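Anyone up for a design puzzle?
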């Protein structure tokens, strides 16, 4: 990899007008080539605020976290010069974008394929994750170790992966199973992965997933079924 790798960022966003600008502005600009915000059918000013903050804004009308990520990947695939590393980051400002330097470091220094930013290993602000999120993460990572022999502490959305490795995974999931699909497929392909601690704060605004009973059950079901799908 070049001494100065090309790093692009994909940020799925659905109705995050109050936070997405903060996320984009806090990303270390000296590290990245392009910040892509995928506006996932928002009904507010998410797209406007992301554009004003300096991001490239794509529109994905089909709802779903995975759909938004796949849209970002398609955009990058059309670039003449492909990135070396892709960073995924949420738009709700719960993560600390400036920690991106730590998340990509194992790829640069140790030739790791994929790095998960673990909220479990970092400082978790009180109330940043609901009890059902914490339990769901524990259960999912337990099952990953049991069935795939990989040790994780989190399915955190803040993650970095070599572009070539991401393409090799053949990502398919269109909704909540995106993050765990990536970890399952990386395990099956015996990619080199690791975790780094990341800090996590109370998000801006209301969660569309963990903030509702329907969202929590739907996400949990999709994550568990995705783990068993690739056995």
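Challenge accepted. My sequence:
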């Amino acid at each position: 990899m070049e001494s100065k790798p090309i790093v692009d960022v994909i940020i799925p966003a659905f109705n995050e007008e109050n936070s997405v600008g903060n996320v984009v502005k806090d990303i270390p600009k000296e590290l990245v080539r392009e910040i892509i915000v995928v506006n996932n059918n928002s009904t507010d000013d998410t797209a406007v605020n992301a554009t004003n903050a300096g991001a490239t804004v794509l529109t994905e009308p089909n709802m779903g976290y995975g759909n938004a990520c796949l849209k970002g990947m398609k955009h990058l695939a059309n670039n003449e010069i492909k990135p070396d590393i892709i960073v995924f980051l949420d738009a709700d400002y719960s993560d600390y974008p400036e920690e991106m330097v730590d998340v990509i470091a194992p790829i640069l220094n140790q030739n790791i394929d994929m790095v998960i930013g673990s909220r479990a290993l970092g400082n978790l602000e009180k109330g940043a994750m609901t009890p059902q999120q914490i339990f769901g993460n524990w259960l999912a990572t337990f099952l990953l170790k049991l069935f795939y022999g990989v040790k994780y502490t989190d399915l955190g959305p803040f993650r970095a992966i070599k572009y070539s490795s991401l393409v090799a995974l053949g990502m398919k999931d269109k909704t909540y199973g995106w993050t765990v699909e990536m970890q399952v497929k990386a395990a099956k392909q015996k990619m080199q992965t690791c975790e780094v601690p990341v800090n996590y704060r109370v998000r801006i605004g209301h969660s569309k997933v963990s903030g509702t009973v329907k969202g929590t059950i739907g996400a949990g079901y999709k994550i568990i079924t995705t783990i068993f799908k690739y056995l």
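A detail worth pointing out: The CA atoms of residues 83 and 98 lie 20 Å apart.
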